[in-house]
């Protein structure tokens, strides 16, 4: 079983960890009709998650991941300010909500300034609390716009793979539809939170 962290604990919730591999489908929503973002469905085309970007929320650099009923599970914000503007990295923070509605930080994602142009630049994620001796816990391998990349843990184990099968690739060259294979025991909310940030970084459906 592929674990999300060294201790095998989920990043956000064990309720969204499957005992078997889950293959989910991401379908981008058009900005004109629904404000952008994307919907995640299972093999039965049942909605599992929905991600709203700035076209829905109305705030640039902010994303929300919701469950099938519309309840917010994850809020993701890009850090701003003068210090951030001068930094060589852009940083994102993901938050969950407790029972009182307070925000609790659960992960940070760091991207190089030129990650959209240089394919070999690493995009790395650290979780809170930390479970690795490195300064990161997960890393993106591959290139997201090509729909050919993986999320790996600090031990080099693949926790999720993003791809497009050959039939879909022939029908939709713009990659509006793709699948994500999430390994057993891996927190699916965390995985799609990371994918939401990647979508925004590369100027896709969650970005205005």
Automatic annotation (TrEMBL):
InterPro entries xref list: LOR (IPR007612), LOR_sf (IPR038595), Tubby-like_C (IPR025659)
SUPFAM superfamilies referenced in this protein's UniProt entry, alphabetically: Tubby C-terminal domain-like
Pfam families with a match to the protein in the record: LOR
Family that this chain belongs to: Belongs to the LOR family.
UniProt xrefs under PANTHER family: PROTEIN LURP-ONE-RELATED 6 (PTHR31087:SF3), PTHR31087
Full protein name: Protein LURP-one-related 6
Organism of provenance: Salix koriyanagi
């Amino acid at each position: 079983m592929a674990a999300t962290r060294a201790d095998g604990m989920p990043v956000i919730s064990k309720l969204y960890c499957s005992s078997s591999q889950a293959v989910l489908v991401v379908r981008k929503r058009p900005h004109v009709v629904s404000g952008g973002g994307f919907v995640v469905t299972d093999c039965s085309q049942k909605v599992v998650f929905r991600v709203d970007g700035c076209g829905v929320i109305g705030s640039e650099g902010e994303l929300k991941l919701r469950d099938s009923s519309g309840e917010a599970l994850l809020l993701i914000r890009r850090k701003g300010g003068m210090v951030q503007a001068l930094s060589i990295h852009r940083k994102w923070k993901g938050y969950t909500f407790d029972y009182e509605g307070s925000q609790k930080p659960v992960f940070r994602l760091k991207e190089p300034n030129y990650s959209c142009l240089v394919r070999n630049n690493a995009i790395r994620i650290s979780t809170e609390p930390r479970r690795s001796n490195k300064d990161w816990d997960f890393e993106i391998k591959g290139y997201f716009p090509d729909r050919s990349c993986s999320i790996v843990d600090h031990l080099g184990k693949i926790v999720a793979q993003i791809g497009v099968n050959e039939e879909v690739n022939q029908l939709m060259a713009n990659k509006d539809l793709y699948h994500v294979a999430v390994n057993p025991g891996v927190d699916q909310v965390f995985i799609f939170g990371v994918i939401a940030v990647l979508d925004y970084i590369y100027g896709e459906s969650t970005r205005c």
